[in-house]
Amino acid sequence: MEPKYSFLSGDAQWTQRTCCFSLPLPGPLLEVRAAGIIVPVVFFLIFLLGTVGNGLVLAVLLRNGQVKYNTTNLFILNLAMADLCFIICCVPFQATIYTLDGWLFGPFACKAVHFLIYLTMYASSFTLAAVSVDRISESRKAKCKVTKMIVAVAIIFCLCWLPHHLVILCFWFGYFPFNRATYACRLASHCLSYANSCLNPIIYALISKHFRKKFKQVFTCLLFQNKMESISGNSESRSMLT
To answer: Are 42 and 50 in contact (CB under 8 A)?
Structure first.
């Protein structure tokens, strides 16, 4: 990508990074340097929570073939895969926008990341729409058990992405003044939209007893497996010493 360039607006100097998903940034302000530390830390937490959480969702759904006979589980699987793809392929690259002076990964990577951001976002949107339609055709008993969780996921998705799109629209239509307040809003909306990719597993665990039970089972299996491997490794090392 092209290096960032600067321009003057009154007495303030601004810089614009021409990498994906970015807006003009105030140049020498303290907020920019602080963002270079805070935002990558937030993105790292999103990456960590999202990878573990969505990985657990995939493990729960793929274990014992639970997605074969349940369309809702299939839709939830699609959401988890979209979120995991977004976290792994997009979040680390976007974090570099705030720490590096320019985009170092080339134009192809920039376009690929930009493409994956919108691909996963639209995949989540259409999946939520599909699962909402599917809920209508289910029985009232099943609907009461799952609808609350699906509604919560949809509401959180809208709340997380709405501020970011409002900022983008204001910027496109020229109603986005470049100052400290709008810069803070831009950072907050960016972090909030990306945080959505790690929130769905938390919603599942809070609302669904089934997911809480399955999460515990997966954790138990992993801990037991690690413990057995540790015991086996210690036994082998002792036998070699004797």
So the answer is: no
